[in-house]
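RECORD TYPE: protein structure
NAME: PadR family transcriptional regulator
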Amino acid sequence: MFKKDFSMMKHGMAHFEKFDMAKGFDSFSRHGEHDRFFKKGNLQFVILQMIAQEPRHGYQIIKDLGERFKGFYSPSPGSVYPILQMLEDREFVSISKHGNKKIYSITDEGKQFLSEHADHDVFKQRQEQFKNVDFEQMNAAREQVQEVFRGFMKASKQALHDPEMKKELDALIEETKQKLAQLNQS
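PREDICTED:
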């Protein structure tokens, strides 16, 4: 059980979803049991909307999204920069250089795309969904989960060499899964 759970967790963390514009406008993406804040198709749309409001560079997009969601959600550079490249490839944005920074501006094709998909304003939908959420509380909860995860990783390394500890860890994992399932049914 321990190996199976660890393998599934490792696979889930390493998995990057493939871009699919047709499916990009769904709400939460489902990959196995993992929810994503924005699918890449949705994130593409949000990034293009942001660039339409004001030309921006990649880091500014990451920072601005983090600020809009008060630190609860911030896309990784590994999500943003491939999307910017794809937007450029589709000629939805153009690039100008200012020093070492690439500034992305929306093109007429990008404006047309946004206009054709105006009813799919994923960012507004996501903001509406989280309008009454206490992001500070969510950030605190996320930090607690990260602390638990670090403890789990440390214990799992030790359990590789201690069969008794492995049994205890397996039991703890199973108990935690059951309690979480009960909470999710409420």
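COMMENT: The two ends are 26 Å apart (CA to CA).
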